[in-house]
Amino acid sequence: MQKTMDVFQKRKLTYTAVFLAALAIFAGSSLVTQFNAVQGLASFPAAIGWIAENLIPDQTALERLPKILDKLLETALLSVAVTVVAAVFAFFFSLLGSNITKINGIVKRVVRIVAAFFRNVPDVVWAMLLMFSFGQNILTGFFALFFTTFGLLTRAFIETIDEVSASCVEALEATGANFLKVVFQGVIPSSLSGITTWVLYMIETNIRSSTLIGILTATGIGYLFDLYYKRLDFPSASLVVLSIVVLVLVIETASNKIRKVIL
Predict the structure, then answer these.
(1) Which of 10, 92, 149, 151 is the 20 to 30 Å CA partner of 210?
(2) What φ, ψ does residue 137 adopt, rounded to 5°?
């Protein structure tokens, strides 16, 4: 009983220390950045009032809806294309980095380092770097999303493949199956549901990311939002935002239904 009380006491002290540390970090950050939390909270009513007054789509914004939907479709198709292409490359690359496939240890380490590099560089940074070479066009946006997606999916696929039953792979190898037969008869059937789930998740993520990339590369729905925002055409800009929200919700709903079917 005494030991139980001591454990609870230690947990209580730990939680208190963490809370006080977080509070101290917040206070220090607010002091350095001159952020006033009370003033920020007090500005919410005025902000909500401004939104209600300026961010309601008007007749002019609705007339631009066909153009907005056209750019929205372009953004969605770009996101799907990037994800599918990146998934194909990531899958074959992940086979080299998985423990299940038993590839050379040095190759496996190199694959994981490359995946970590592409994964940890944000797509916005890729877009800014690639604009020096390709300029502001859809190709820049494609490669910016591709590199980040490739890194994320490679890492995700490696973990998914590593969850495949080793006994299944060993049984195929015992029958004399070569590497390709092990992959197509053992690895893919066992990991297909997990891989599909990750691909659907990345499609949703890339639709959101491609909006920001479009602002930098002057393409897709992000370009329209940037154009309307800089012209202070807030009703049209708000219609762009609402269309993006609807698209993301539709994609998420479709993804959830597909997951229920395959899982």
Answers:
(1) 92
(2) -155, 175
Asked whether the beta carbons of 83 and 206 are under 8 A apart, the reply is: yes
Written as six digits, the tokens of 44 are 């919410």
pLDDT in tens, 120-162: 888 888 888 888 888 888 888 899 999 999 999 998 888 888 7
The tokens 């300026």 sit on which residue? Answer: 54
Q: What share of the chain is helix, strand, coil (3-state, %, to 5)?
A: 85, 0, 15
Query: What's the confidence (pLDDT) of residue 262?
Result: 67
SS3 110: helix
Angle subtended at Cα 222 by Cα 218 and Cα 228, rounded to the nearest 5 degrees? 90
Rg for the chain (alpha carbons), in Å?
24
The pTM for the full model equals 0.78
Task: In whole angstroms, give the CA distance from residue 222 to residue 214.
Answer: 4
pLDDT in tens, 182-239: 676 767 777 777 888 888 889 888 888 888 888 888 888 888 888 888 888 888 888 8
Residue with tokens 């370009």: 223
d(CA 45, CA 133): 45
Cβ distance 56 to 228 under 8 Å? no
Contact 86, 149 (CB under 8 A): yes
Residue (of 102, 109, 116) closest to 187 by Cα position: 102
